[in-house]
């Protein structure tokens, strides 16, 4: 039987939904109103993000793929850890398209390592594990389903080997700068001396190039943002009228913050989880930050969170870097 569709008891509603409701309602009660982009990725959101990655304007994915495809040896070399056995841990592994170039290389090289993908989605991990079992039977895969830091702890309990932690895709850009500093600090504390991290950063560049990637003509990014309202309507019995919200994107080339908002097109009341949320006409709903960095910004982040710079490897356009740091 499926407990999630059993409406007779409230105790069986999973924790995750309660946390979702709490965070969404709290965001809608604050001034300015905000929603967290970490909730963009329901089934439809995953699909929309796939479509975004296929748009010609969205340069990030091809740039980082260029690094993993064409600079594999260089990457592997910087991550070699004196040929010691190690665990390759990936935060938010998804389909592991980019990282697979790296671990295939390590397998061919006969390195002694386990690949440990961490993801919040059990479905994605199952698919990945089954595919890797078929394609790379010699690769030891230990999938860890849950929050990043909980699962890092679990990884340490499973194995005492050196760690290489991957955090790709400029996912760090979805944190406010202050949160990114906290995140790197916590990551540093969870690791041991000598461990390595590889973090993907989208670089500051021609501001029009950046704005175009998030303000696409076909409105996919707008749909991606609005999809969170659809999700809230479905999961929290809300009644957002999508025609009354408009996507608005900004990029500030000085700070490097690329931000998306939804603008309320009228004075309106929305009911969300038994609560009425009132919007003024033109009131903003903060949705997502995609922070961009200069190479100096990245260096400062490493310096102030306890990491030593090892290298940073850019794509051929110099638009994206994978920074390698050591504890
Ligand atoms: C998944 C965080 C890399 O911020 O560039 C794409 C998500 N948002 N278009 C990004 C996203 C709008 C993306 N990351």
Q: Per DSSP, what share of the residues sits in E-state strands of 2 or more residues? A: 15-25%
Q: Looking at the structure, what is the overall shape?
A: globular
Q: Roughly how many Å is the radius of gyration?
A: 21 Å
| Count of individual helical segments | 11
Largest sheet: 8 strands, mixed
Oligomer: single chain
Give the H and E element order: HEHHHEHEHEEHEHEHHEEEEEHEE
State the low-pLDDT regions, or none: 1-8
How far apart the termini lie comes to: 47 Å
Helix/strand/pairing class, anyone?
A: alpha/beta
Query: Number of DSSP strands?
Result: 14
* Overall pLDDT score: 94
Helix content: 25-40%
Bound molecules: N,N,N-trimethyl-histidine
Molecular structure report:
This protein is an alpha/beta fold. Helix content is 39%, strand content 24%. It has 11 helices and 14 strands. Strands 2, 3, 4, 5, 6, 7, 13 and 14 form an 8-stranded mixed beta sheet that branches. A 4-stranded mixed beta sheet has the order 1-12-9-8. The protein starts with 14 loop residues before the first helix and ends with a strand. N,N,N-trimethyl-histidine binds next to helix 10 and strand 12.
Summarize the structure.
39% of the residues lie in helices and 24% in strands. The chain has 327 residues and is an alpha/beta fold.
């Amino acid at each position: 039987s499926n407990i999630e569709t059993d409406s007779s008891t409230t105790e069986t509603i999973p924790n995750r939904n309660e946390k979702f409701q709490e965070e969404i309602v709290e965001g809608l009660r604050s001034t300015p109103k905000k929603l967290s982009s970490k909730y963009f990725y329901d089934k439809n959101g995953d699909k929309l993000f796939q479509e975004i990655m296929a748009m010609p304007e969205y340069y990030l994915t091809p740039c980082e793929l260029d690094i993993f495809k064409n600079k594999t040896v260089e990457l592997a070399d910087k991550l070699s850890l004196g040929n010691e056995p190690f665990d390759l841990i990936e935060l938010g592994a998804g389909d592991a398209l980019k990282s697979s170039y790296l671990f295939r290389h390590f397998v061919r090289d006969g390195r002694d390592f386990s690949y440990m993908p961490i993801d919040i989605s059990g479905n994605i991990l199952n698919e990945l594990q089954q595919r890797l079992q078929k394609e790379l039977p010699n690769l030891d895969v230990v999938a860890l389903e849950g929050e990043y830091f909980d699962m890092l702890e679990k990884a340490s309990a499973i194995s005492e080997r050196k760690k290489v932690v991957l955090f790709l895709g400029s996912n760090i850009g979805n944190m406010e700068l202050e949160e990114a500093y906290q995140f790197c600090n916590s990551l540093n504390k969870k690791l041991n001396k000598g461990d390595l991290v590889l973090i993907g950063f989208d670089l500051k560049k021609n501001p029009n190039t950046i704005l175009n990637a998030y303000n696409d003509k076909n409105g996919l990014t707008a749909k991606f943002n609005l999809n969170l309202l659809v999700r809230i309507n479905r999961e929290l019995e809300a009644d957002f009228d999508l025609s009354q919200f408009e996507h608005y994107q900004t990029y500030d080339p000085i700070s490097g913050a690329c931000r998306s908002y939804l603008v309320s097109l009228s004075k309106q009341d929305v009911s969300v989880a038994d609560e009425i949320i009132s919007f003024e006409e033109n009131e903003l709903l903060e949705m997502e930050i995609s922070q961009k960095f200069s190479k100096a910004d990245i260096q400062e982040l490493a310096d102030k969170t306890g990491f030593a710079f090892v290298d940073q490897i850019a794509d051929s356009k110099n638009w994206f870097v994978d920074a390698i740091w050591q504890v």
